[in-house]
Design brief:
The protein has about 400 residues and is an all-alpha fold. The protein folds into 2 domains: about 10-285, no CATH class; about 295-403. It has 12 helices and no strands. It has helices spanning about 5-10, 20-45, 45-55, 60-70, 75-110, 115-145, 150-195, 200-215, 225-285, 300-305, 310-350, 355-375. The chain is elongated, with a radius of gyration of 24 Å.
Length: about 400
């Protein structure tokens, strides 16, 4: 498999160095993060370090939870990293500037100090912040729409942007709580923002992700191409505004209401993702048997691809047979087969140009063939353990029987 870059095939991009635009985006986002942190550090003193530690500490766990919903067809790591950095850098810094200008020159002069802050937090900030976070998703829809294969993809990208934004915003909240109320107030804010509802920003932006995912997986030129992303963005703004205005409008009761709303929304997103995953399994069962004539799949191999548990068992078997390279080859095979079934989903929805479909299909089949050859090049050993999903055969990963 040395002549093929499996990740490039799976990502649907030309092999080679990362795109210049992606490198520039990561660089700009990183510089914005440094600048935002510097502003907090200059104004926060010792509270800055307390806030930074508390804000950053749970991020690996939260990112892992987000990625757990995308195991059947993982997104390109470089795009996920860029999405997180954009949320933590560009979105945060530009939102800080625009929100501050809005307070100084619009809401406070018109409504007064107290009401101006309420109007800015409830109506201005959600529009600004969700637009900036959603810019990544709209960019993916415009430049890399084929990377989004369903609602789960849109939610994952949205959550990565939201987690980056929330991490930087939490630094400021924790820092202020520590400086104004000491450890007791810091503890209360951390419980509310870090433990009870750490996914608030990701949940808001997930509405935009759902709209963008709908547009990306349906026919170009259809009515949903513009309406769905805009409706998703509007939903994100409304949820964000409800969250920001909850305590001022309803006090503690309002806060309870929005926490419950977030919980219901989280359950709804999980349900959508699980339903979509079952749809992916049905497409695997429907379309992969069409390629049985290539020798790349058998009914047993299709059954192995149906669940995450059987896929893990297959990778463990591959590792026992040929070590890490074989396990990696098995993973490439599984991901390519899944991408192939999702490619047919685009055909179902009249969202795939014939020439692109043919080239993409052939590239995925070639990757599946190369992954399979990694096993067939190994001489058969009578004492070797047969694949757990096909103990009696047939399987594309078994040597044909000798006659």
């Amino acid at each position: 498999m040395a002549l093929v870059d499996p990740q490039a095939v799976l990502d649907g991009r030309t092999p080679g160095r990362p795109p210049v635009a992606l490198i520039a985006g990561v660089l700009v986002s990183s510089l914005c993060i440094v600048l935002a942190l510097a502003l907090d550090a200059l104004s926060g003193g010792a509270g800055f370090w307390v806030g930074a530690i508390l804000a950053i500490l749970p991020i690996p766990m939260l990112v892992a939870l987000v990625l757990a919903v995308d195991r059947m067809e993982p997104e390109p790591p470089r795009v996920l990293v860029f999405s997180f950095l954009w949320g933590a850098g560009v979105a945060v810094l530009v939102a800080l500037v625009l929100n501050t200008l809005g307070l100084l020159y619009v809401t406070v002069p018109i409504f007064g100090e107290t009401k101006g802050h309420f109007v800015s937090a409830t109506f201005g900030a959600p529009v600004i912040e969700e637009s900036l976070k959603g810019a990544v998703l709209f960019g993916l829809l415009w430049w890399r729409r084929n990377e989004i294969d369903g609602f789960a993809d849109g939610v994952v990208y949205a959550c990565m942007v939201g987690l980056g934004f929330a991490m930087m915003e939490n630094i400021t909240y924790y820092m202020r709580a520590f400086e104004e109320g000491g450890a007791q107030q810091l503890q209360a804010v951390f419980i509310l923002r870090g433990l009870v509802a750490p996914f608030s920003h990701p949940l808001f932006t997930s509405m935009t992700g759902l709209g963008v995912a709908y547009a990306a997986t349906h026919r170009r030129g259809g009515p949903g191409q513009l309406l769905a992303p805009l409706a998703g963005l509007l939903g994100a703004m409304l949820l964000h505004g409800l969250w920001n205005g909850s305590t001022a409008i309803g006090g503690g009761a309002g806060l309870i209401v929005v926490y419950l709303a977030d919980f219901v929304l989280l359950c709804a997103l999980i349900t959508i993702i699980l339903v979509e995953r079952r749809g992916t399994v049905r497409r695997i069962e429907r379309y992969l048997p069409m390629y049985a004539g290539t020798g790349l799949v058998t009914p047993q191999d299709v059954a192995m691809l149906r669940s995450l548990a059987s896929r893990r068992a297959a990778r463990r078997w591959a590792r026992s047979v040929g070590g890490k390279p074989a396990a990696r080859a098995m993973e490439d095979y599984q991901l390519a087969a899944t991408e192939l079934s999702l490619l047919h989903k685009r055909v179902e929805r009249d969202n795939a140009e014939p020439h692109w479909f043919a080239a993409r299909r052939d590239a995925l089949l070639n990757l599946m063939a190369l992954a399979r050859q990694a096993f067939l090049r190994v001489p058969p050993r009578p004492a070797s353990v047969p694949p757990p999903w096909a103990p009696q055969g047939p399987s594309g990963f078994l040597h044909p029987p000798h006659h």
